[in-house]
């Protein structure tokens, strides 16, 4: 019996100008105790569907047609007070941004209790007991129920919201991007928890995400959405092993995977269709390389093909399409064949020597007077790096590891507190003393957020020309260089874009303008801080390709900072992994990814989800969280969480050259040989022990109480 | 930092501020070019030797630092000395006037803080409703109109026009009550009280309404309210949470306003002939009655500092995310 049935659902948003048809004829059903995935890029309608199932559609949204049946009851006609009874009691919700989803002025325990009291007639003691129970289930310390949300880290807050979703044993849990915004190791632990909970409780789950990897690893069935339409639907295994729809193929190809090196990421050219009218043809036809005239005749119906349903007129040629889709040329991209043969990196362009950035902690006035040594947060602590011409150095690490600070210090956007930086053999201090302008023309920075980093009132032409004007070029050179650069970053023809304002551009186009702005001065060194992390998968690949091409063609050295290992392995020649201000491992990307030696780097790499549903990956259950950067323990920073740590590790911090093999270095006394047995199995075992331990303690307590 | 350390630190800062404030008052008044006696000499009422005697009587012939120390010592024991013009202790002049002002303004402020804040929250929650627009226009109108204009209109309509309320003073000229209870708890007092009370409530309502409305509007789209809604909370319960999260600016503003009440509202007191601190202060300044001015200014400064301290403490208590050290 199916728990939730969505039939031919159409949802419209009314805006002041025209209606937006966000969801068109979507049908799917979720059985009991099922994990169902809705996957797609932003604007595909997945969140709108989730809101509809909770009855929380925005005020200007309405169900234009179709039905949503939950346990055979039509949800579309419910009144607000009927909704209030169903919410949480039967359908609960795990929100996307755990960081601001909890009421900041209410203890987490009280927030969960509130949900209980709202729906059940229980005493406070009973509610407290239940809160402690769910805390236990999600792996939080039940003693912390009276803490406020800000006292928890991001991953722990997400656990609180999961605990909250479980508290009434609902029949359906809707998880809206539950792991987006979390670091990859934390994400892995949360996914593991969700799956474990699925086994224990009998709720169904509707998982909404853009992350193909997360869906492939967690869901039994999946719908791939695009432009408010279901493109492909069926068992996750079938859909991602043998996709029959060109969009699924494109999405999967665009999604970077950690251990695919040097393969040019395949992006889907073009942008989302305007949804101001009901689709008259296939919604994907303007971006689809296999589109024919037939595709203009209305959106194709979902037809059975193999184990799954696919909305495409050409499903009979699915095998051929799959093969063709793996080739970048199919998508109108230039071939990436010359990549392997690309010339050797040239001279060293950037060198840092023991670079340090310590932030002083404020201390009390009295300690200041006594001359006490203040505490420091060592955001960047003794980092040695080199970048050569035409080389991309990837810097990876979790949030808070100091990678962004490193980028800003190298670009002299923040002063350093120790060590040296050399650009092309000259110290940064000398360069800055000579001329700040000249330094800025050599070192450029690309920021994360293309929506905030462009001036909204400046047209593309003016934005890209501005650096040249500051450097004092003549008008003719400026015009020529702007045109060239805009075209180089793939905004073709340039005339079409030069007079547009940022608001008229899509996110991917804006980021390309930002890149053009950085490249127009022909810098020697480019520092990119997460330039693709705000973009959808299909656009992300495009940005990566542009950067790679620029490094090759223009001999620029690039420092590419990201938490996303998969995009790093695709783009970087060499990879550095940071943990708490130190580079713990560095080497050729291939060496680092295939044979990581530092236990932290190895764990990080192993935690990336796989888009291939046939791979059975062992989860990384790395215990604890990075320690407080103010009072770090002596010895190796990672020792407290490392299963291999010995006395030696706690005594003295290993040098980065503790392990050395060619250019591959790792700061570890006991380099990892086999990730599975030495680390992952160990983590799992330790956790198992911890569980047995707590179970034992419980049984002892119970027997004591029994007496 | 623990809450206790925070409390000690803030209190110490408040004490230092108070000391600075009274020193400034002392220095300012001593720097004024004239004193009340020189005027008497000029008019021929006193001979210079008599002035010397008088100066010695008030301790004005002592070195400046001795005067300062005595001044500080007296202030902190709440001995404000004798009025120069009325020949009675300053506390007897200021005390009743201050009480009259507080009896009028404090209940008015509390009333408007509660009512207008709740109305503002409701308005913010129902954005675009007629209630929101109506309440904003009305309260902004009264906020923009000077309080004495509102007062005069109230008098014209309800006192001279309809004759419902007396127009003048705090009690009728026939009444001569003894003791606090008889003064402030009589029907006669209530009749005199209603109009100035109403004018004050109307005047302050706009601030609280807009503050409450804006912070609820800010909270309205927030993720945590979405989660509260998903939990099945009713509309009013959600508004309750939004309101709880909007309390900070309201409490801060309330505390600061309360501190400023101690100055009285001179225009209001004049229009309604209310014998409050504002009028007492202006009279004292006109008469160059320095001990009275000193004392009144000291009380105002102290009130503002104390209410600021209260606001800080309320902040740390209301918002757990405010690290006590940040404030």
TrEMBL record, chain A:
Domain ABC transporter: 4-252, 350-605
Membrane association type: Peripheral membrane protein
Compartments where located: Cell membrane
GO cellular component, one term: plasma membrane
Major site of localization recorded for this protein: membrane
Keywords annotated in UniProt: ATP-binding, Cell inner membrane, Cell membrane, Membrane, Nucleotide-binding, Translocase, Transport
Pfam families: ABC_tran (PF00005), oligo_HPY (PF08352)
InterPro entries: AAA+_ATPase, ABC_Ni/Peptide_Import, ABC_transporter-like_ATP-bd, ABC_transporter-like_CS, Oligopep_ABC_C, P-loop_NTPase
SMART domains assigned: AAA
Disordered as annotated region, ranges: 687-707
Example GO biological process: peptide transport
Domain of life according to the entry: Archaea
Any one GO molecular function term: ATP hydrolysis activity
Alphabetized PANTHER family for the sequence: ATPASE AAA-TYPE CORE DOMAIN-CONTAINING PROTEIN, OLIGOPEPTIDE TRANSPORT ATP-BINDING PROTEIN APPD
NCBIfam families linked: oligo_HPY, PRK11308.1
Name this polypeptide is given: Oligopeptide/dipeptide ABC transporter ATPase
Species of the source: Haloarcula japonica (strain ATCC 49778 / DSM 6131 / JCM 7785 / NBRC 101032 / NCIMB 13157 / TR-1)
